[in-house]
Structures are given as structure tokens and as C-alpha cells.
Amino acid sequence: MKKSAVVILNYNGEKVLPIFLPSVLANSQSDVWVIDNSSTDSSISLLENEFPEVQLIRLASNFGFAGGYNWGLESLKEQYEYLILLNSDVEVTPDWDQNLVTWLDQNPEFASVQPKILSWTQRDQFDYAGAGGGFLDSLGYPYCRGRIWDVLENDSGQYDDSISVDWASGACMAIRSHDFYEQEGFDAHFFAHMEEIDLCWRLRLSGRKIGYHGAVKVYHLGGATLSRSSPKKLYLNIRNSLSMLYKNLSKPKFWMVFVLKGFLEMLSSLQFYLKGDKDSSQAVVNGYLDFLKTKNLLISNPKKQKDRNILRSGPVRLVFWHFFVLGKKTFSDL
Fold it and tell me: Which domain covers residue 48, as residue numbers?
């Protein structure tokens, strides 16, 4: 079994691959694979002609982030000790992959670890996706050191440490292959968004830990597939957040959370509507309706009775209260 593989999921990435893939090839000691999610652009010919050293897995359909990785990584089962999942729009730094793998070697109780994730366009600023390590509040809302809601902090070395977190970002995460396959990977019902948080929650319920290693940094463009303001992304985040909570919380606790989240998010839907953003307003409603239609397809986590101890390890119980009501906009304020 080889030590590690960097695995990039690609869908119509002909514009970003020439920008970001060279840094991966130049700065990585791992094998580099690309899983292509049935791209309709010239991604395949680009990879074959300009990056022949990259090993390619071609899927017959677009299975989204979750299904794409699940299907693609089946081809690599039992070949690598570590899998490093990387977005196609991430620039990496020298020895980034080996430093993450070494950290996991030195911390066997951890299943996965993410690096410090900075913005590619504002390089002294944290990136939205993962930033300086991710946490969940009691309603399942994710927030990060370096990013709360849409407010991003500048990087001044304040998160250069290594800590235990609630979740590692799918933009860049190293994971032990044994842990990934034992959990049967991502939940393909999610298609895209929140699937890495769900996987990390399941790993924590099984007794494993999730890490952040701030000595390694990467730069993420973000929004290469869907803009953060996209109604489709809003819909997926709403639906998948509810799905994650339903799977991993006890039923009484889930329905309590559902009522409170529903009240808050229907208020946000009304706010979108009053501002004239009817697509976003409908996206929130559709997220709830589709969750209720499909919740019986979700497989509950048999270990979720531990949810009282595992839901959150961050500093606040209700991040929206601190952000919107108390006006605390940065992690250090919390």
C-alpha cells in the first residue's frame, strides 16, 4: 500500500485546472489523481495533453461532490494509506501534502486534518471554506476561526496552531483511507455542500477526532462551481443541514432543533422576498420541503445517542445570536 494520494474532483474545470494544477504537481510528493465528474467541456483533453503525469478516473455521470468522490475513490480502495481530497481551485505550498500526512502519523487518534485555508484573491485573508478550523453550534450552523457567516478575518498568524475541531473542509482535507471507507464515504444524497461536515460528525461519533494544522497553508479561489450567493447553493445548504442533523441527532433533539431553525430560516426567506430576491426566498422553502420528502431515505447514525456530548466543541451555543444580535463578528470576539 502506498502512503498517500492527492485526489481532485473535476467538473468542467478547463479554466481553473491550468491555473491551479501546476502548483499541486510542483509541490506534492503524493500521487496525483483527478476524478472527472463527466465534464462537458475540454477538461479531459486538457488533462491528457498538458498534464499526462496526472492519473485520471472518468465517471459516466455527474454525481456531485459526494457521489463523485465516493465512486471515484472506489477505484483507489486499499491502494493508499491516506487520501488528500483537494478542490480543483486550490493553490498549494511546498510539502503541504507530506506535512499533513506526517501530522496524522504523529496523531493516530485523528481521522482527518485540514490546513489553514486562505483566500487566493485576498491572500492575507482567510477563505470562507474552512478558514482556521471549523465548528458547529447547537443548531448545526457551521462557523470557523477566521470566518463567521460572511465576515472574514485577516491572517496575522493567530491560527497557526494545531487543534481539534468539529469538521475539516472539503476544499482540502487529508483523511485516513480506512476511516473514509469504514464510514462508507460521503452521503451521496447530499450531492454537494455539508457532506464533509456530516462525514466528520459520523467520525467523531465513532470515537475519532478531526484536526486542524495551521502550519500548513493553501489558497482557495472558491465559487468555481457555485457562487456563495447562488440560490441553488442556499437550497443545498438548507436541505443538507437538516439531513445531517436528522441523521446524527436523537429524534426528540432533532425536532426541537428543526422548529427553531425553521422559525429563523422562514424569517430569512421572508426577508429575501421583501428585498425582491424571490429565488433565494423560494430556495429556503424548497430546502425544507425536499428534506421532508426525502428524510426517510436517510440512514440514521446508530451511534447518535451520544449527540449531547458530540454536537459542538466550539465556544458558543448559538452563533447566530452572537453574530446578529450581540454584533460579535470575529471568532476572537466569541
Answer: 2-220
Separation of alpha carbons 156 and 140, rounded Å? 28
Distance CA 220, CA 122 (A): 10
Examine residue 206 and state whether it is found in any structural domain, yes or no.
yes
- What are the grid coordinates assigned to 62, written together? 455527474
Taking the model in full, what pTM does it have?
A: 0.93
What sign does the dihedral 112-118-119-120 (CA atoms) show? negative
| Residue 307 grid cell | 449527540
Instruction: Give the per-residue pLDDT at 225.
Output: 53
**What does the pLDDT look like over 111-124, one tens digit per residue?**
999 999 999 999 99
Interior CA angle at 312 toward 307 and 317, to 5°?
Answer: 110
Given a contact cutoff of 8 angstroms between Cβ atoms, the answer to whether 3 and 81 are in contact is yes
Q: In total, how many domains does the chain have?
A: 1
Neighbouring C-beta atoms of residue 66, cutoff 10 Å: 25
Reduce the DSSP state of residue 25 to 3 states and report it: helix
Q: In this structure, what is the dihedral angle of CA atoms 57, 59, 60, 64, given to the nearest 10 degrees?
A: -160
**Torsion angles phi and psi, residue 273, rounded to 5:** -65, -45
